Amino acid sequence: MINKVISGADEAVADIKDGSVLMMGGFGLSGIPENCISALLRTGVKNLTCISNNAGVDDFGIGLLLQTRQVKKMISSYVGENQEFERQLLAGELEVDLIPQGTLAERMRAGGAGIPAFFTPAGVGTEVAEGKEMREFDGKMYLMERWLKADFAIVKAWKGDTAGNLIYRGTAQNFNPMAAAAGKITIAEVEELVPVGTLDPAQIHTPGIYVQRIFQGKDYEKRIEKRTVRG
Q1: pLDDT tens track for 83-135
Q2: Do you know which SMART domains this protein is assigned to (predicted)?
Q3: With contact defined as beta carbons under 8 Å apart, do 138 and 115 qualify?
């Protein structure tokens, strides 16, 4: 069994070059690769294209990379919690491709499954459909969407083993499984790294065949984006 363990986040992202396409797991601030984002800040790599459901918040997550102007383009679904993102978008400083959330998830899943295109009703009759192929199936119009793939996929899991098998916990099982399958090189940071054979095979969400690098992360903040209390 191949041991895919590396020393940490700095080693994990060391070969990410200017202009790379990155796909990151996470939803809001849940299940985001905090350690790798911090390491990317330290490298100063720039002109990145980031495929992610959202752009974090101003001072956390991908929002940190936006502050340092390391991101050239965002391919996302929900970006409403990041004021710096909004400012750069309105100022024409950031390229943005906004995608319906379900379509984004399926485009990522298609990339990992080797499916180059599929048809969906989402976006028909809107600006999303401009320039895209349309077809009718059973009397209903559908829009063709293409897969999304990345040079590097960066995910965060609860547990992983030295062969790269991953288990996500709770709502962190969001875009992470799709992202993990769609990268040429997939980097996984985990809260707990265990020997091969420790994880229950029936509980594994991402098989190790998709993962090239894994390390145990540290100092996770696990911020809550919006805290809601009930009176």
Answers
A1: 888 889 889 999 999 999 999 999 999 999 999 999 999 999 999 999 999 99
A2: CoA_trans (SM00882)
A3: no
Between 226 and 209, the higher pLDDT residue: 209
Residue ranges per structural domain of the chain: 9-117+147-216
